[in-house]
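[job 4471] stage=fold_predict status=RUNNING
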Amino acid sequence: MGNLLLFISVTNAMALLEFTDRGIYCARADVYIDPWKPVDRALITHGHADHSRWGMKAYLSTHSAGPVIKYRLGDIRLQTVGYGEVTTINGVKFSFHPAGHIIGSAQIRVEYKGEIWVASGDYKLEDDGLSEAYEPVKCQHFITESTFGLPVYRWTPQEEVFADINDWWRANAAEGKVSVLTGYALGKAQRLLHGLDSSIGRIYTHGAIENTNEVIRAQGIKLPDTIRVSKEINKKDYPGQLVLSTPGAVGQPWIKKFGQISLGAASGWMTLRGARRRRGADRGFVLSDHCDWPQLLEAIDLTGAENIYVTHGYTAIFSRHLRTLGLNAVELETEYEGELAEMETKQETMKG
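[job 4471] inference complete, writing structure tokens
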């Protein structure tokens, strides 16, 4: 463990985890989990912008999350560990476990003298075949999101969703239209690629998505063949094909180059018709990299935890429901944003 000396610290504080104005803090080890303000040492669950921020002196993540974190944050001091590998800091044991959210995402297990906490970050139970599949971790204290923590959110199996997406693409191709499908540059875009039927036609990608794809492919992770949208491509090549776009690019001049399009949006928010209208989509496909209502409850049950801390989403409603189940549940104010934070930055949008 010599390569982890940056994370070794000694302190006399006895609290295991506490919630501060900088993030989730372990005073005994003097480290933060997914801090939103600059700190000396940060343990990062995954690469989305609300969990992985610039300005920390040292970062620790999983091996498979590391490349995209460095791509997004630039020249940072980053060390990585494997899933299940234990790092002990001043007697506190830390380990990363698959969260199933995106490639490299992790829950962070924290143990000291028999007391076990798990900070789950963002997670989903459905195995998408691309991310490392979620693994429940037993604990007494569980920190959870509730991005879709309302009973109305109940996902259709992903196989059915992808069948609908591919049928939509085929129908558009038959009419000579370009199918423009939106998904966040990190996570959702790669999951969509994994489920698309590339025998229907060619798949073109927005620059922000393709940049992320290149980072992921360089790790040895296979993705379907894609073509970066560029000025060199003849507009006559697009009809019948599919363009994978970031949501933010839809309202930009970039979208006009494709001519007659059918716009599809893939998101958990597509459960509600109003969300589809706000995004101007012809079709909404309900596909999320977060848990729905039943999966959130299942995940909490699998941990065996009696103490639940709800950090973002429908925190008040979800924590109140957990209390009716006999759990000690509280909602907490954090700067995590769930699926909203997975929107690309303005800078990424301009990379198209």
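[job 4471] summary: The mean pLDDT is 91.
[job 4471] exit 0
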